[in-house]
Write a structure and sequence with these properties.
CATH topology of one domain: Hyaluronidase domain-like
Low-confidence stretches: 1-34, 47-56, 429-439, 574-578, 647-667
Mean pLDDT: 76
Helix content: 55-70%
Radius of gyration: 43 Å
Number of helices: 20
Order of helices and strands: HHHHHHHHHHHEEHHHHHHHHH
CATH superfamily of one domain: Signal recognition particle, SRP68 subunit, RNA-binding domain
Shape: elongated
CATH class of one domain: Mainly Alpha
Distance between the termini: 153 Å
Structural class: mainly alpha
Amino acid sequence: MNEWKEITDTHLYRYRSVHNNKNNNSNNNTTIILTMAEETKDRQAEEEKDDEVPRAPVEIVKNLSLDILHLAKTSQMKNGLRHQDYRRYRQYCTRRLRRIRKNNQVRFMYANPKGRQYEFHEVRPEDVKDERFIIIPLMMAERAWSYAMQLKQDNENDDFPRKYFHMKRRLTKAARWSTTLKDLCATVGDARTALEAEAYEAWMHANLTLENENWSGAVEKYMHAREVYEQLSQVGSKEERELFRERIEEDIDPSMELCKYNIEMEHGSEVSAELLLKIRLNNKGSQLLRDKLDAALAETRKKQSSQLTSIKWAGSEVELKNAKVREILLKVDDAVYALNQIKEVNTPQKENLFLEVFNVYDEAGRVVREEIAKAKKKGTQKSETLTNNLNIIAAYVKYHKSEMQVRRRVLFVDDLAGKLDMLERGKEIVETEGEMTSAGNIGPLELLNGFTMLSREIDSMSNVPGVDRDDSIKAFVDSIGLGCKAFCAYYAGDVYLNQGRYVEANALYGKAYSISEQAIDLHKERASNFTDITTQQSSSNSLKKLNNLLSKLVGRQALVKAKAFLFKTSGGGDNTNNVNTNKTLIERQGEFNGGTVENNHSLTKFPPELKAIAVKPQFFDTAFKCLTFPDLTPVGTKKNAANNNNNNSKDGGQEKNEGGYFSGWFS
């Protein structure tokens, strides 16, 4: 009661003081109110100090285990980073943190024990009870890192400087949380968890140092992370060892190569762009490293563009005076070089590189067309020369793009042909990771469609201006075009063979055999006329395929003859598939029917049929549909037909046509 009375008297006295001094200035009123707030805070602090009970010493939990890298990688692959969706992964980290916060044992971090207001506390070793407490700093670091990568991805062209600084702040926060994770695991985690946290912290700080372009500092951090991961890759299960090696090969080694490249550039040594392309191919996950590599490649292309002065096409050399054209052609060379580093197998990685090459060729064609339009607007004699040179460059780009399309289609049909051969041998097709085609529904028709598309692409390549003026290119196009036609005929024969149309199949096999021999001769002639390594390699590969095709054709021709003989002896007749052999040659032009010897192959009807011709005006021709014409069939043919139907003559129903083939006409 005394306490309440004291409090009431105090507030009443203060109220009267304020009320009596209301005519004073506002500064005095503000001072009195602030004094009341300070006294209230002091009193609350004293009460809390009196209520405090000395806490007993808390025992720290030891030897907690957490697979940090496995947990991070699994979460990334399941939540967006398989498709480079950093926003989705950041949202997942937020949701997971919220689930952990809602647990009653973890609420100490965010709730004041004496109220509902928010009050954040760091995760201290004495607060840790299980592995969930270690996940908190890990998810905080992952969320900040993914947010930085999202900002990096959204600002690829540096259009928004504020996003760049925001990204650096997020990376700094991720590095800070990784340090918290390392310190926490060093106290409460076992030896393996502490090592993983140490490597994770070194890798995160290395990313921040790389973004700040401190190359030597980044190399030191990456080296430390690499050493720890190498030690961890020697123990544990097979999956864990592969995970650590993957982090070294895909994330750490390419970043170290980039840092070493920049260190050499700072010291003035010349380094080729091929090294950067190799680093970029080895990099499979880091968006930060990919952007750094693209920037370094752009700078290297600018330096090398001055060295690219001309190109050769169709026997003529064209100078490259336009800097924009030089840079885009260097970009094309880099894309082709990256494609050539992957082995010639039809895989998703190869397909993605092909798409990148096609995009670069399209960009090059667009740049050249824009330069041609600018040159035409000038209208001077000098601009005509420039336009002609640019047209030659456009033809050069178009041909090489068509060549890449042919190369891509060849990989596709070779993959299908190999699988079809395995099916024909009775072997099962084992699907490996990364194959582009499925084992189901593979047949000659699919390969026929593939080679038909390939033939069209070769035809478009042969129509590029300047191909007919270069003997080497013309020989290459003609030889592969003829070989493609041979394969088309072969698989078309297989289609007819499966349908039981043996005559057509045999004819197509014969055509494929003759075309293959012609293609082999062209390839041999090409190999003898042009001795460069590229020509020799392509000719040898084509000759190997065509020789295999010839051996297959020999077997196919024997097979189709055997099947036709069995079909005929089993009562199938002449295997004409019930085709009407009485049709003349003009009537059966769309059918594969040669007729029979008995009716002289029905070349034409003789004598020809009589037809009525309408007179003009047709309205008065009342007899047009009422006329009947005499039968002009030869007499001997009538007698033979009658005897065959009656079968009553002594010589088996056959009479000799006395007048021969023309007896009815001249009798």
